[in-house]
Amino acid sequence: MKEITRTEIKEFAHGKIRQGLSNGSVRVLITILSSIFNHAREDGIVSANPTEIPGKYLKTPPKEKADFLTPKEYDALLTDARKHNPRLYPLLLTGLRTGLRQGELLALQWQDID
């Protein structure tokens, strides 16, 4: 642990992002490492925690602008759903009109609706 540097922690974090992990997931990993280093510092194993203040090197990139369906695409999607898979039509309609995410739609129960 004494040989791990802040640069190596940064490289680890950026490597995980390149592998496809989200910044939030990488922050969780860094938080776990930070906790381990804090305990090691308290026990006198290391003198410094190289994971402190991860926000300085884990900046969140600007989010891409959402690409919403045009009214024409919206209508075509619902028309095709009604024609080819009528069981999915209510789910798609609800999702399009409410903006619920996939997990929220799939977990929706009748008692959730007011």
Q: Which bin fits the share of residues in helices?
A: 55-70%
The SSE order reads: HHHHH
Largest sheet: none
The count of strands amounts to: 0
Radius of gyration: 23 Å
Low-confidence parts, pLDDT < 50 over ≥5 residues? none
Determine the structural class based on helices, strands and strand pairing: mainly alpha
The oligomeric state of the chains shown is single chain
Overall 3D form? elongated
Percent in strands: under 5%
Average pLDDT:
88
Count of DSSP H/I helices:
5
* N-to-C CA distance: 55 Å
Q: How would you describe this structure in keywords?
A:
55% helix; single chain; elongated; 114 residues; mainly alpha; 5 helices
Short description:
55% of the residues lie in helices and 0% in strands.
Q: Can you walk through the features of this model?
A:
- By secondary structure, the chain is an all-alpha fold.
- The chain has helices spanning 6-18, 23-42, 71-84, 89-98, 102-107.
- Helix 1 runs antiparallel to helix 2 (23-42) and helix 3 runs antiparallel to helix 4.
- The longest helix has 20 residues, at 23-42.
- It is elongated.
Map the helices and strands.
Blueprint: H1 6-18, H2 23-42, H3 71-84, H4 89-98, H5 102-107
